[in-house]
Amino acid sequence: MRVKKAAMVPLLALILSASVLVSLGAGHPASTFSAYETEKKQLELENLSREQPRVWTDYPVFAHALGSVQGRANTNSKDAFLESYEAGQRVFEVDLQLTSDGALVARHDWEQISYYNLEQTYAGVMDHAAFLASPICFYYTPLDIQGLMELLIQYPDAYLVTDSKDTDEQSVRAQLRNLKKAVEETGQPELWNRIIVQIYHQEMYDWVKEETPVSNFIFTLYQIENPNYYEIGAFCRERGSQVVTMAAERLSKERSDILHSYGCKVYLHTVNRLRQMLESSWGADGFYSDCVTPEQLEGVLAGTNQMYLSQWETAQEEVTQPETTEQSAGPAETGIGVLP
Questions:
Q1: Residue 303 pLDDT
Q2: 159 in Cβ contact with 150 (< 8 Å)
């Protein structure tokens, strides 16, 4: 007899239970909008401002470093946010750094390689004014924390995931105070509902809670060499942290099962190939990506799930099928219509 396979995979459970995401004007660059399209988009945004945004964990893809702009990744620029939003992204991860005079800005780091990639002249740790006056790749607009808050206000269904890089207490608290001040200056404390803070170790959770009213957390593992997945899962369950993020190459069935047993969703970074997303969907609930959008992933899943289910069942049968006996095996069981 064949072993029955009826496990619901994490990502497909999310996809099949959620509505299909519809981008506002996806595929139409802003410069090609007609007056009618522009007015329609504005009305849609105004309607969104009166509605409760979708929960951020409903989205199977987050825009890494605010997404891509004209094919360029890792710019953390305003232009990347706008292009990615038009393409259908709604959850935006952003890299954050402190300037030499203590301002919080959207940048991966101050290393020479980052200056090279952003086509800027190396200047070490810039001050706030110099940062804002330095176009990214000659064309794109840099963002400080105030600019990021303005985007959250302008696009009321967008979420922001922080990647602050630093793990020492002094730097973390300084960044958090900048973030808190920026939110307070908007006069809109409800923005905290759309800000998700990534923490890199357990102690950092306490620093965040002491400095801000943040309630949405992601525990990210890229700065931990040998994570204890049981310990992290228990920590996240006790404190209501809903997502654990890890590098794609770290994913395994054992690790995924452990984290899911504690109620955590598992996201992988950074994945830019739809095929890799499909092939990881047995254990991952979502992905960070420079270029893939939620709508693209859902579209591919909808069109290929039967093919991938068939391939997965064939592979599983090779593992679970007992050796042939005198009694012939019964007819193949019917699949349940989901991906592994």
A1: 72
A2: no
Per-residue confidence at 301, pLDDT binned at 50, 70, 90? Answer: confident
Task: At 136, give phi and psi (nearest 5°).
Answer: -90, 125
Of 82, 58, 53, 50, give the one whose Cα is nearest residue 69.
82
Burial state string for 283-292 with b = 16 or more CB within 10 A and e = fewer than 16: bbbbbbbbbb
Q: 3-class DSSP state for residue 286? A: strand
Q: What is the pLDDT of residue 17?
A: 47
Residue 51 is encoded by which pair of tokens? 């509605």
Q: Residue 200 and residue 313: Cα distance in Å, rounded?
A: 37
pTM of the model: 0.78
For residue 37, the model assigns a pLDDT of 53
CA distance 10 to 14: 6
- For helices 169-186 and 145-154, what crossing angle results, to 10°? 40
Which helix (H) or strand (E) segment is 214 a member of? none
Q: Strands 91-98 and 104-106, how do they pair?
A: antiparallel
Output the CA–CA distances (angstroms, integers) from residue 54 to 104, 177, 192, in the order listed.
27, 27, 15
Structure confidence at residue 31 (pLDDT)? 38
pLDDT in tens, 128-173: 999 999 999 999 999 999 999 999 999 999 999 999 999 999 999 9
Residues 6 or more apart whose Cβ sits within 8 Å of residue 220:
163, 198, 199, 200, 244, 245, 246
DSSP 191: G
Model confidence at 54, pLDDT cuts 50, 70, 90, reads confident
Structural domains in the chain?
A: 40-291 (3.20.20.190)
Q: Which tokens in the block code for residue 272?
A: 């830019």
CB 244 within 8 A of CB 269: no
